[in-house]
Design goal:
It contains eight helices and eight strands. It is of the alpha/beta class. This is AB hydrolase-1 domain-containing protein. It holds the Pfam family Abhydrolase_6. InterPro entries: AB_hydrolase_1, AB_hydrolase_fold, Sec-Metab_Biosynth_Hydrolase.
Length: 227
């Protein structure tokens, strides 16, 4: 039911913000996983929306040569993007999904807008953690979740990458969709994730120094509310 007194949506430019949104994906998720929210956000007036590719998430068809990337590789990769925007004077909103919260927390070190006031105009203004997993400093994702992720243990580990069957990915990532559509999405946007990314420990708790909005997803089939 529509409400006559509902406030009009404001575009970012109407709010006086020159804001770039950087999305840091969940484990097992390719950037295409976020096509719908990216399109929606752009329609509402976001000037720039960037979805980073975590190196620890294997690209479709990529070879398994070398040591798989881990959390620290993901952090370095995301930081190049975020720091580059900050140096360009942009206000940056970092949106992180589940595992992406670890990457976000690490990569924003020294880039908070408040800490950069008087030094340069840009900075990270906020982190939005969607069903984010936020370990303490010195904890890995595995230690923080302690086996409580809804997807359960991987069906196989090959070449340092965790593999889950598409049916399981579909049921956990797309639980609100009909089975045929969830399988289609899982096949197109989900892939394998490196073991290292779940084992490397958080070195910097960025959520302590930058404003955070935490979105609790009570119907989520992957991350229990207590996490």
């Amino acid at each position: 039911m529509a409400h006559a007194n509902r406030p009009r949506r404001q575009h970012l430019h109407e709010q006086g913000l020159d804001t770039t949104i950087v999305i840091i994906p969940d484990a097992f998720c390719r950037p295409e996983h976020y096509d719908l929210p990216v399109t929606s956000r752009r329609a509402l007036g976001a000037d720039i929306v960037i979805v980073v590719q975590n190196p620890s998430t294997r690209l479709m068809g990529a070879s398994a040569a070398g040591v798989p990337a881990g959390l620290y590789d993901d952090t370095a990769n995301a930081r190049v993007v975020v720091e580059g925007l900050v140096r360009d004077g942009r206000s940056v909103l970092v949106v992180a999904h589940s595992y992406g919260a670890l990457v976000a927390s690490e990569c924003v070190k020294g880039l908070g807008r408040e800490g950069l006031m008087g030094v340069q105009p840009g900075g990270v203004v906020r982190m939005v953690l969607i069903a984010g997993i936020v370990p303490l400093e010195g904890q890995s994702l595995n230690e923080a979740v302690n086996g409580r992720l809804g997807i359960g243990p991987p069906d196989d580990v090959v070449g340092g990458f965790m593999y889950h069957k598409q049916e399981k990915l579909a049921a956990r990532f797309y639980s609100s969709l009909p089975a045929c559509r969830s399988l289609e999405h899982a096949g197109a946007t989900n892939t394998e994730q490196s073991v290292r990314s779940f084992e490397e420990r958080l070195r910097y708790a960025g959520y302590r120094g930058i404003p955070v909005t935490y979105m609790v997803t009570t119907a989520d089939q992957m991350v229990p509310v207590e996490l």
